[in-house]
Amino acid sequence: MYKYDEYDHSIVAARVEEFRDQVNRRLAGQITEDQFKPLRLMNGLYLQLHAYMLRVAVPYGTLDSRQMHMLAHIARKYDRGYGHFTTRQNLQYNWIKLEDAPDILAELATVEMHAIQTSGNCIRNISSDQFAGAAADELTDPRPWAELLRQWSTFHPEFSYLPRKFKICVIAAEEDRAAMRLHDIGIQIVEKDGQLGAAIYVGGGMGRTPMIAPLIKDFVPFDDFVSYLEACLRVYNRYGRRDNMYKARIKILIHELGADKYRAEVEEEFAAVKALGIDPPKAEFDRIAAYFAPPAYEADAPDTLDRSDPDFAVWLDQNVSAHKQPGYAVVTISLKPIGGIPGDATADQIDLMADLGQRYSFDELRVTHAQNIVLPHVRKADLYALWQQLREGELAEANLDLISDIIACPGLDYCSLANARSIPLAQKIATRFSDLGRQRELGELKLKISGCINACGHHHAGHIGILGVDRKGVENYQLSFGGSGAEDVSLGTITGPGFTEDGIVDAIEKATDLYLAQREDGERFLDTYRRLGMAPFKEAIYG
Amino acid sequence: MGNLLRYRDDEAHEEPAVTLDAFLGQSTATAVRIESGEDARILLPYLDRLALVEVSFPKFRDGRGYSSGRILREAGYTGELRAQGDVLVDQIPLMRRCGFDSFAPEAPVDEAVLEASLARYDYHYQAAADAFVPVWKRRHG
Amino acid sequence: MKLLTGNDLPTGDVTWWTGSGWSRHVEDAVDVGDQGEAIAHAEEGARRVNGPYVIDATATPEGPRPAHIKDRIRALGPTVRPDLTLKPADPNAGSWVI
């Protein structure tokens, strides 16, 4: 993975001191909260229901054991012993003091970490495929492209006060494991005439008005990559709406202008920008890419597995994915124990995962946008020992992509933006469906819960989606079916009137019962829903 | 009203900045002011007769002026480029990078804090409208 | 009744106006009547609170009970982590919120 050079270190260190100065000035009253808020947001610091919340960046979801150990250390020293992995591959601490934030950032900087631009109206963490570098289906590792963009976007002076937040995702496979089409800019690295380049989708997003990003340019060669993105951002900065916070994302601009007009504006801007020579040379890309070379795989690693332990076999089938290298596998550690808090991990668990990553995965871990952790390069021969240790750490729930592998935002238990609690509902659903045999019978079922319309739980992209609303001061839940964040991207459709917390658990059970009764060969819940349409489901739930 | 902050060697321009509409209607004005929603490229045919372009930042969160500044510098404008309005010390370094070399803040700016802020970063990742060599260029010459 | 609430600037702790200062405990909160905005303005200016706002509440034997669940969650702590709330040993705390 990428390692800082003197320049990277210098920039992050300067940022730490800059924020320390800004915090001191805020505490001394030299700047108001209104003036300070964008500054602290650009360092990932929110003021939430109970305390400040700090969102630490995990660039494209990749980190090593040293960094994981630091995250555990910070949880213990400055927070309350745990952290929350997010739907943008970052980590959040819920109990931070403003006066500690500069020291926290200083500690993070010692292991090449930061909280830069994890909030604010600027370019956020560049996300990517959690199986990058390991998946057999990828054209190339997308992360060098993501790292190039991380540097380009960091403290970009022109794009620090955009109309709204800006989220970019880079993948390099036909299978979309990162919800690429639901980003402000989604990038797929593709090949044309023997050259690698970027297919650029602009204008996706969830929230109040979910949209799937249309294709704006089918191939941008490396030499034009940064210029083209600069042009895309400049058009947004100049013309994105600033009159209404809920209409300020680039998806609204694309929707109002039309993709063709937006593309024409970008091409015009690109012509001007290209002449400036702002594109880094191929040598810079190669320098970065060298950090993402495959690890030193063992040449003849055994490819067979002893499945005689039935619990191990279940976990193998559910949480272990194919690796492009024979003898190796990709492991997903579920942070969704039945009845637990989705995406949360204790400091001890984070330390354990760090050790396991170091020992079994060439010292590399990933955070997925489904709030789980991946060990990308595990020898098959080590899987059993790894699984046993995960079990001891209560990290061996074998529910990847099953109904209890719920994506849930922190919701009203933590978040000042929320209208309803999401975590208790996730716990109730997981408990109702806790029987693993039943879950496996239901198969792949991506259930996502957001506590408000900001959709941090990605409910629009859920096979089953739930949105928490405030109905005259009482929590209420809207149910939707048919969303998908994969390459078969689609936005969910609301079933009808909302439910109470217990009511929606019953409704979900009725829907899954219908699916089981009606499904045809190999159909997932999503497929049966798409085939049958909403009517029979509506009948089953409300009838 | 804060003091005018200026990072140019030449004399401050005397003539007041006229609105864009007025400028386009006159052949003699040498100073113009553009609002945050106005298109800086409209000025491109007139750059060599302009000594001052003032760009409005009505609220510090409105970042359109940063693009306006860069567009003017990229097109070859070498006169004074002034940021006027809700211009605060924490945004001035970014404005400098976008080519602004004078600042007319509505509220006074603490110049000691500003000086420290401007000197804080030795390196920048990306090319902008200032003289900083971007990091990628330093890495590869 | 009307309560004035906010967060402590340096720590982020939830605070409640007691009539003379700020407390972490909603039981100490007083009815600010129609003075909330004025007190908020003064206190925020002096940086004794961050982001204050006025809420509705009902007086109960246990003390003021905020009208909206969000502020009850602020008053106590996350419903899903009773151990992290202001009343970890109180088995009735959760039902007070909900």
Please provide a written account of the structure.
With 543 residues, chain A is of the alpha+beta class. Chain A folds into four domains: 104 residues, Sulfite Reductase Hemoprotein, domain 2, CATH 3.90.480; 148 residues, Sulfite Reductase Hemoprotein, domain 1; 83 residues, Alpha-Beta Plaits, CATH 3.30.70; 136 residues, Sulfite Reductase Hemoprotein, domain 1, CATH 3.30.413.10. In chain A, 37% of the residues lie in helices and 17% in strands. Chain A is built from 17 helices and 20 strands. In chain A, helix 5 crosses helix 9. The longest helix of chain A has 22 residues. The mean pLDDT of chain A is 97. Chain B is of the alpha/beta class. Chain B has a single domain, classed as Rossmann fold. Chain B has a six-stranded mixed sheet. The model of chain B has no long low-confidence stretch (mean pLDDT 95). Chain C has one domain. Chain C has 98 residues and is of the alpha+beta class. Classes of the chains: A alpha+beta (543), B alpha/beta (141), C alpha+beta (98). Chains in contact: A-B, A-C. At the A-B interface, helix 1, helix 2, helix 6 and helix 9 of A face helix 2, helix 3, helix 4 and helix 5 of B.
In short:
The complex is a heterotrimer of chains A (543), B (141) and C (98). By secondary structure, chain B is an alpha/beta fold.
How many helical stretches of chain A?
17
Task: Compute the number of structural domains of chain A.
Answer: 4
N- to C-terminal distance of chain A: 54 Å
**Largest contact between protein chains?**
A-B, 44 and 39 residues
Which shape of chain A, going by the Cα principal axes?
A: globular
Strand content of chain C: 25-35%
Strand tally of chain A: 20
Largest sheet of chain A: 5 strands, antiparallel
Structural class of chain C: alpha+beta
Summarize the topology.
The complex is a heterotrimer of chains A (543), B (141) and C (98).
Chain A: H1 6-27, H2 33-41, E1 45-47, E2 52-56, E3 62-63, H3 65-78, E4 82-85, E5 91-96, H4 101-109, E6 127-128, H5 143-153, E7 168-171, E8 185-192, E9 195-202, E10 215-221, H6 222-239, H7 250-257, H8 259-274, H9 282-289, H10 310-319, E11 320-322, E12 328-333, E13 344-346, H11 347-360, E14 365-367, E15 373-379, H12 383-392, E16 407-408, H13 423-432, H14 436-442, E17 447-450, E18 464-471, E19 474-481, E20 493-494, H15 501-518, H16 525-532, H17 534-542
Parallel strand pairs in A: 6-7, 7-8, 16-17, 17-18
Antiparallel strand pairs in A: 1-2, 2-5, 3-14, 4-5, 4-13, 8-9, 9-10, 11-12, 12-15, 14-15, 18-19, 19-20
Chain B: E1 5-6, E2 18-19, H1 20-25, E3 31-34, E4 52-57, H2 64-74, E5 80-85, H3 92-97, E6 102-105, H4 111-119, H5 135-140
Parallel strand pairs in B: 2-3, 3-4, 4-5, 5-6
Antiparallel strand pairs in B: 1-6
Chain C: E1 2-7, E2 14-17, E3 22-23, H1 36-45, E4 50-60, E5 63-66, H2 69-76, H3 93-97
Antiparallel strand pairs in C: 1-2, 1-4, 2-3, 4-5
